[in-house]
Design brief:
3-stranded antiparallel sheet, mainly beta, 116 residues, 6-stranded antiparallel sheet, Jelly Rolls, globular
Length: 116
């Protein structure tokens, strides 16, 4: 068993085109020999966002702090702490921090083979 304090995992900037003021901590992933899932924590600064993108795998997201809008084909959907989302494979999506002055944090689970 591996136990970590998330805040002790190094945060790295997300450098995909379209990302703004967002970092990620890979809590568990390939470096931990996780066989199935990678657990990541994203932090979006006030006004920050992930790129508008899609990928060939589903993922799950849980909001921990702040207010987030999920941009989807059906429009923006608000999320707040305690809300969870299932994003199907190939669905275009984006997460935006809509909190006026505080960071937003969310956990994201993906298949480990897609975590770098």
């Amino acid at each position: 068993m591996i136990i970590k304090k998330i805040e002790e995992v190094t945060a790295v900037p997300v450098e995909m085109a379209g990302a703004r003021d967002v970092s990620v901590r890979v809590v568990f992933g390939p470096k931990d020999a996780a066989p199935t899932f990678a657990l990541r924590q994203f932090e979006l600064a006030a006004g920050g966002c992930t790129p508008h993108h899609s990928h060939p795998f589903e993922h799950e997201v849980v909001v921990l702090a702040g207010e987030i809008a999920v941009v989807s084909n059906e429009g923006d959907k608000p999320m707040s702490p305690g809300d969870a989302a299932l994003v199907p494979a190939h669905e275009k999506h984006q997460f935006k921090n809509t909190s006026p002055s505080v960071p937003a944090r969310m956990l994201c689970i993906v298949p480990v083979q897609y975590q770098k």
